[in-house]
Amino acid sequence: MKTGTNTESVGYRETPPFSGTRPAVAATERFRSDLRLPELLVGRQPIINHRQDIIAYQLLFRTDHRVGPESVANNAGATADALFDTLNMGFDRVIGDVPAFIRINSDLLGHPLLELLPARRIVLELGDWKRLSRRALERIKGLRSRGFRFAVTDFRYRADYEELLRLVGFVKLNVHELSEEGTRREVRYLRGRGVRMIAQGVQSEADLKLARSLLINLYQGPWFTRPEILRARRVEPERARVARLADLLHSGSGITALENEFRQDPVLLFNLFRYVHSFRDTEADVHSIRKAIQVPGRKQLGLWLKLMLCRPQPDIHPEALIRSALVRGRFAGKLATAVGADDQEETLFLTGLFSVLDTLYGLPMHELLQALDLPEAMERALIRGEGPYGEYLETLRAFEIRNMSAMARQGHCLGIPLSRLGQLHEEATRWAHDARMVAPGSSSGG
After folding, report:
1. Is there a single domain that holds both residue 182 and residue 279?
2. CA distance 149 to 420
3. Of 9, 195, 214, 321, which has the highest C-beta tally within 10 A?
């Protein structure tokens, strides 16, 4: 296809044209088979009611795909790390719109991570409830005042557990391990104490019939379903960027400086959006970087960054893919400005930046964007390649695979000369390079 433009002047060579209804394999696809990132595994088992509606999920944490499915993290450090991973994975993807039961030991009750969790969506299940200290009981009271609920598992009544029973909302009885008489005895002790009983470990129809005969109407166990495993690549943001953001917050820097730093790490920015949307009472219109920074507040944001700095870093970092995301985001934003749509610069920047997420995390795009409440134009472009923003993504891909015919066609669609498109792409590439080269103590503009 002749365009009348000197291809040498913009530094690209002709490649075969697009085929099909979407562009040929995008440049990011080259990285898909090369990514060997650690894998996060989260198990979930439904807790159901008498109508078999799912009313909650029990979460089970695994820290690496080389660990067997029976190996669940039990110590405070491993549980905290897995919880933080789940928070970054997105609570909506893991549990949808029901609460999560999360088993912890009392040594986690004072962990700063609990400050970050969406309290009203979580039931903390105490694994060591039989030996709680006075200090632990006081911490439970404080966490209850913030909206957390508590449960105990494998319960056996004793008179000295009365204070604990006043603090918990759920009691699990293992109907398979208890005898029928033992189960009936425990139910008699618990009646009238304001707790909801859950028949735990239901493995047979007989277990279920016993629970129902005692008017226990919440159930959990392999008779219904075994734990489902959710998988995602564990992708960490650049540590230097996290440290720099923490320093900026500590020094009282303005929000523009924070925005500029977040713009330069797609993983960190995506994690921020997912974290903010894990709170159901958050305003629905968190579409901008500034709003996402403002919602948690500086104190909570600083704690989030601090905990991120304490985490071990994987040996492998997908540098080429991260740089590709930055180029896409910056290029898309520049295209918006070039066509006079300055008010859409940030939205298109985010569209370009997030367009590599499926390759980066190894998950379908619609799962990654679930519950982020992004603008419809963004979702249509990212999930289906359609709509007004779809044209911009086509342009980004055309430049990635160096297809001159497609570049010219997209330039015509956007009303931008091909030579100008080439200049904008080069500027975006230089910005991405500078963003990845910035030292922790230096500054690069947004």
Report:
1. no
2. 58
3. 321
pLDDT value at residue 2: 35
309 vs 120: CA distance, rounded Å: 26
In 3D, which of 347, 335, 342, 324 has the Cα closest to residue 395? 335
Where are the alpha helices (H) located in 214-318, listed in sequence order? 239-250, 255-263, 266-276, 289-294, 297-309
Confidence of residue 341 (pLDDT cuts 50, 70, 90): very high
Cα 389 to Cα 323: distance, rounded to the nearest angstrom = 21
Instruction: Tell me the sheet residues that pair with 231.
Output: 41
Structural domain contains residue 445 = no
Q: Are strands 170-174 and 196-200 parallel, antiparallel or unpaired?
A: parallel
Supply the pLDDT for residue 438.
57
Task: Specify the pLDDT at position 97.
Answer: 86
- pLDDT at 70 > cutoff 80: no
Q: Say if 370 falls within a structural domain.
A: yes
Residue 2: inside a domain = no
Query: pLDDT value at position 4?
Result: 36
What is residue 20's predicted lDDT score, i.e. its pLDDT? Answer: 30
Question: At 336, which helix (H) or strand (E)?
Answer: helix 319-338
Instruction: Establish if 77 belongs to a structural domain.
Output: yes
Q: Quote the pLDDT of residue 72.
A: 41
Angle at 378 between CA 375 and CA 382, to 5 degrees: 145
